[in-house]
Amino acid sequence: MMKRIRTKFFASLSSTLVWAGSALSTAAHAVGDLPGGPAVRQLNLHPAVTKIAAEQAWLHWFMLILCTVIFLAVFGVMFYSIWKHRKSVGHKAANFHESATVEIVWTIVPFIIVILMALPATKVIVAMKDTTNADLTIKATGMQWKWGYDYIKGEGEGIGFTSALDASHRELSNNGGPKAGVVMDDYLLKVDNPMVVPVDKKIRIITTANDVIHGFMVPSFGIKQDAIPGFVRDTWFRAEKIGDYHGQCVELCGKEHAYMPIHVKVVSAEDYSAWVSAEKKKLAAKADDPTKVWTVEEITLRGEKVYAANCAACHQANGKGVGPVKALDGATVVLDADKNKQITILLNGQNNGSMPAWKQLSDTEIAAVITFTKNNWSNKTGQVVQPADVTAARK
Amino acid sequence: MSAVLDHHDHAHDDHHGHAPTGWRRWVYATNHKDIGTMYLLFSFTMLIVGGALAMLIRAELFQPGLQFVNPELFNQLTTMHGLIMVFGAIMPGFVGFANWMVPLQIGAADMAFARMNNFSFWLLIPAGLMLAGSFFMPGGAPAAGWTLYAPLTLQMGPSMDMGIFALHILGASSIMGSINIIVTILNMRAPGMTLMKMPMFAWTWLITAYLLIAVMPVLAGAITMTLTDRHFGTSFFNPAGGGDPVMYQHIFWFFGHPEVYIMILPAFGIVSQIVPAFSRKKLFGYASMVYATSSIAILSFIVWAHHMFTTGMPVTGQLFFMYATMLIAVPTAVKIFNWIATMWQGSMTFETPMLFAVGFIFVFTMGGFTGLILAMAPIDIQLQDTYYVVAHFHYVLVAGSLYAMFAGYYYWVPKWTGVMYNETRGKIHFWWSLIAFNVTFFPMHFLGLAGMPRRYADYPMQFADFNVVASLGGFAFGLAQVYFFFFIVLPTMMGKGEKAPQNPWEGAEGLEWEIPSPAPFHTFETPPKLNAAATKVLG
Predict the structure, then answer these.
(1) B331 and B368 in contact (C-beta within 8 Å)?
(2) Which pLDDT value is given to residue B17?
(3) pLDDT at residue B4, as a whole number
């Protein structure tokens, strides 16, 4: 491992020095602000798009000003003392070393200030935690390493999809980031399927996770809620402006922690309805009959797509795995005549979730991807797994 | 003073009088000064190891995109940087100060349990080796963050178990060290050294030691449950078996929050020694300092869940933990006011210890204010797990704990080695560290406000500029500590420099200044007779 660092180190040292020469990187990369996402050299919170975020921004200014005033006052006294009460200016030390009055006063005054600070915050907390009467409820499921969004109540009920970082961005990251001169305002923030919500509606987000703890954050809305496996938590927002808003996973969730952004698209009520009907149509078209019996060519073709979308990130397109990720090419489990062995692993995961469970995939998808792995690369078992096999295994 | 020395010269030569020499002196060490020295050297070594990891982190974050390390290794770096700095550098560092100074300050001959003292030091070595060596395990070092949140810990490789074992050993060492300090302070004070006449450093350590005994077993419990979840089929924190990952966080932070005071209270103690010495004036409000320290310690047990506002706790929970946390600002403010009142109308000089102490007060207070801002749950929702938090805790841990240790080093090194450090170099070290520190960590406030999550190996382009600044500052800060070692520490250790008088500081009071410099191998073998204020040895 150390060798790997070393070679990488020297390989990239020269290019980094070139970058360092151009001093500030954004200057070299010509990046612009991302509306609803971070701005270049942003100094404060995102512009608020919800009442809660506006309240948070107000509280932050209130605290910042109060703290700055106290800081300047206290350290004004200290630096005055440092200036005047130095030995080098001939100041003689006084003898006092206690005063009950003073000490009581400066215990009570901070106490009162702290109470004054807590009062406005209390109001906001109570508002923040009120997730009742939502117009639309969406479940956000953190997975290593993407988000799953399920519309579970309100207009669009039944829609569900996953949202992952654009694969080209991930690749770019491995290759040292965007090259100089390339404008990429949404670097690491671009997803395949954004969450879509209507403007001016109360959206309740229920968070949970499949594997480890993730964190759902959208700074413009002032929300951040951990997504905890085995538990559901909730938060809410009412976006007041149409637009695209970006956030990222904020709870360390493993190696790809930096690569599972959140993108919420706030649209008008009509656009939202249009989006819902389009999604519903897509869903109907995609729905597979789990009792269908497929031919090997058909299902292998389907499995290739499932593999590319879900498995290739870790097991690699060539099926050889990488690092601790096991190879599928030539693996005993894959070649095993008992197809249930592989089905069980896909449904339940393995090695404490290093290989996550994939039970959220449909029976057809699981059957397809297993058939694909059993008949691809050097694996030539000729076995076909049908959706019905998976349905049986789920029971 | 003569009473201290005279006995040493003749009475004990045939039993335990002379200093052992060679390796035996260190391996079999039972002398609090030798053990203190070893603790300090261990702490500094770990500071350099942890610092090297930080340099790699800052190198990776210098530019968007992955240049030097892959994301797995990056997570290992952040995790081990945290664990090594907290458990390897800061905590043993203060124990080193306690070993050296507590017996000297209270007029005791040595620590109460000399052999346990030896054991608690030598436990650190295997633990430190295991922590640092975990990088070479299959799968690399633990990468679940220094907080070791479940269930991510369940996915870690075998190095996680080694890390847990190392933490267990460090915990045992801390508990033994604490017992030793408590017993020494409560039982071995010289006659006349009542508790309320005791120097502030001894007071803060007494309170810290109680905190350690209270919470290290809690950490041990949390990581033991992690271990059994990993290997013995339990499901304390594993949701797949009905466990509760949030319970891990509650247990961890019940340890973790007192832990941050464990790392800062001895720092308060050191600063409370130095500010009066260089103001040539007694510490203002000694009694209220003691009460404030105790209140901070007690309050530290009821604020832990402010680390968990985003886990989604009920309104009442958020309110309680917010109020309790903000309450800590009160005793902390009292301490700041007391230090400034001590300086007020003094006759101040600014040798390096005083520079670091004033730097501590100034920069630590900035960390205190950002702490107050983070305590406000609605703002915390925006800032939790962003770089704002990273900035905050480095302001209190680096500019707080580490600066206080630097201050303590400059203040007491004449006593330890018998030579003065080089004042010009000390000042260079101070200003260099102060500026580099702020260049590194101040921009992180902006990154956090703009929403950059912590523990990210790569980040959106908009964050690039402040990361460049932070990285350059970080490298400069790291280099400053290399300078500190080679140009300041090493010369004093080799005895190079002006010979130090018994008390090199005009305004310093206390029993440590009643013995010669360097401190003889054995001191206060018979209890000294003290003056009424318990600051001077009579006769």
Answers:
(1) no
(2) 52
(3) 45
pLDDT digits (tens, 9 = 90+) for B305-337: 999 999 999 999 999 999 999 999 999 999 999
Residue A48: CB atoms within 10 A of its CB come to 19
Count of CB atoms situated within 10 Å of the CB of B418: 17
Antiparallel, parallel or unpaired: β A146-153 and A136-143? antiparallel
- Give the strand pairing for A214-218 and A262-267: unpaired
Q: Which residue has the higher pLDDT, B459 or A393?
A: B459
Beta sheet of A195-198, edge-to-edge order = A195-198, A262-267, A243-247
Can you give the three-state secondary structure of B463-516, one letter per residue?
HHHHHHHHHHHHHHHHHHHHHHHHHHHHHHHCCCCCECCCCCCCCCCCHHHHCC
Q: Which residues of B touch A143 (CB under 8 A)?
A: none
ipTM of the complex: 0.90
pLDDT at position B140 over 60: yes
Residues 6+ apart with CB under 8 A from A261: A165, A188, A189, A190, A191, A246, A247, A248, A249
Instruction: From residue A51, give the alpha-carbon distance in Å to each of A39, B120, B264, B374, B394.
Output: 21, 55, 38, 20, 32
Q: Which of B306, B392, B394, B445 is catalytic?
A: B306
Question: Which chain A residues are within 8 Å of B453, Cβ to Cβ?
Answer: 215, 217, 248-250, 257-258
Q: Which of B221, B236, B257 is nearest to B150 (CA)?
A: B236
pTM, two decimal places = 0.86
Q: Write down the pLDDT at residue B62.
A: 95
Output the CA angle B90-B94-B99, nearest 5 degrees.
145
C-alpha to C-alpha distance for B206 and B299, rounded to whole angstroms: 16
Check B453 against A254: CB less than 8 A apart: no
pLDDT confidence of residue A327: 87
Give me the residues of chain A with pLDDT under 70, please.
1-29
CA distances (Å), origin B343, targets B277, B426, B533: 10, 21, 21
Question: Residue B401 carries which DSSP code?
Answer: I
User: Average pLDDT in the B419-438 region?
Assistant: 97
Query: What would the two tokens of residue B299 be?
Result: 């309050």
> Cα–Cα distance between A70 and B170 in angstroms, integer?
40
